[in-house]
Amino acid sequence: MALQIITAPDPRLKLIAKPVDRVSEDIEHLMRQMADTMYAAPGIGLAAPQVGQPLQIIVVDVGNDDNPDQPGQLYMMANPIIEWISDDTCFYKEGCLSLPDQYADVERPAHVKVRYVNEQNQEKTLTAGGLLATCIQHEIDHLNGLLFVDHISQLRRNMIYRRLLKQRRLDTTAN
Fold first, then answer.
1. End-to-end CA distance of the chain
2. Quick check: 161 and 9 in contact, CB under 8 A?
3. Contact at 8 Å (CB) between 84 and 128?
4. At 55, is the secondary structure helix, strand, or coil?
5. What per-residue string of b and e applies to 26-45 under the rule 16 or more CB within 10 Å gives b?
6. What is the DSSP string of 89-102?
7. Over its length of 175 residues, how does the chain's per-residue pLDDT go in tens digits?
8. Global pTM?
9. What residues act catalytically?
10. How far is it, in rounded angstroms, from Cα 77 to Cα 88?
């Protein structure tokens, strides 16, 4: 069952998420619903605050390198913590399910090492590079009340928010 994705400028997207005590059946169920919602959107990552749950949970699947339209490795992470970032950086044109049809180049560390608890309540560590590293950082930002537009100039950010508000007004008028 797909969940409702909150869109900016909803203030719930700016809240700091709370850690998960343990990955219970309910939390695992939420993780699976988040993955279904991410795939249906379609997207490559989703954080619990984006679906109105102020919990430190993210799901990520950047696809299959051989066939980007096919699912790759799904990571379901509770309490993800970046333990290491590389000195080298890269730019990706980022978008977000909470800022529909808005994109901007964002510079982030090219590689990260993240510690998290998986859907079976096991502690794991993952070293990631490229798009996977970018996506993990983007989703962890959501847990800290940050959006990708917080990494770009204020002028560009304001333009994106104005477009979102204009689209929202047009959608409301059409209905």
1. 25
2. yes
3. no
4. strand
5. ebbebbebbbebbbeeebbb
6. EEEEEEEETTEEEE
7. 689 999 998 999 999 999 999 999 999 999 999 999 999 999 999 999 999 999 999 999 998 655 555 568 999 999 999 999 999 999 999 999 999 999 999 999 999 999 999 999 999 999 999 999 999 999 999 999 999 999 999 999 999 999 988 888 887 787 6
8. 0.92
9. 139
10. 25
How far is CA 31 from its chain centroid? 13
Rounded distance, CA 147 to CA 8, Å?
9
User: CA angle 64-69-71, nearest 5°?
Assistant: 50
Q: Under DSSP, is residue 155 helix (H, G, I), strand (E, B) or coil?
A: helix
DSSP H helical segments within the chain, as ranges? 25-40, 130-143, 154-174
Query: Could you tell me the strand order of the sheet in which 75-85 lies?
Result: 45-47, 57-60, 75-85, 111-117, 123-129
Among candidate residues 151, 6, 137, the one with its CA nearest the CA of residue 80:
137
Q: What count of other Cβ atoms lies within 10 Å of the Cβ of residue 6?
A: 16
Cα 93 to Cα 86: distance, rounded to the nearest angstrom: 19
